[in-house]
Each structure stands twice: as structure tokens, then as C-alpha cells.
Amino acid sequence: MRKLPQDFAISSQKGLLPIHESAIKHVTGQAIYIDDMPEWPNELHVATGLSTEAHADIVSINLDKVRAYPGVVDVIVQADIPGDPDVSPY
Question: Which residues form the Aldehyde oxidase/xanthine dehydrogenase a/b hammerhead domain (predicted)?
């Protein structure tokens, strides 16, 4: 987290604690959320498919119906991602 000016801190028994940089916008209603932003013309949306089984191994999957669904532009699976597909923050 980046350093904030001293006036962006609150006092506590442990001293001054930093306030999140967008906290003031959140509590005053000035924060802009993604749902508040207008969509661009021809904007694409991403939808993810999730497993219904915990810890299951996918042996095969037929995505023909998904690809044929009206409005679907592309279907991407892990094998389509070059390199390490790990997108976690770690």
C-alpha cells in the first residue's frame, strides 16, 4: 500500500492507522463502481464456467453448445493460455 499523507490516518490505541485511499469516496457516495460506468458500444463481456463438483478432474468437455449460443464470440479454455495460467495475486 502506498504511503498516505498524515491527514489520511485515524488515531487508535496503537497510534495512527492509515485510511484506505478510497475510503472517503466510499463513505461519501463519491466512489465510482464498475456498474456505475456506461458500457462502450460493442463491449464484450466475459463469463466463466465453474465446476459443479469439488476437486473433480475434467476428463473431457464438449463446448459445442456454448460456442453455438447466440452472441458468443469465443470460448477459451486453459489449454489456450500460453505460459503459466496462474493468475492469482501470489
Answer: 28-89
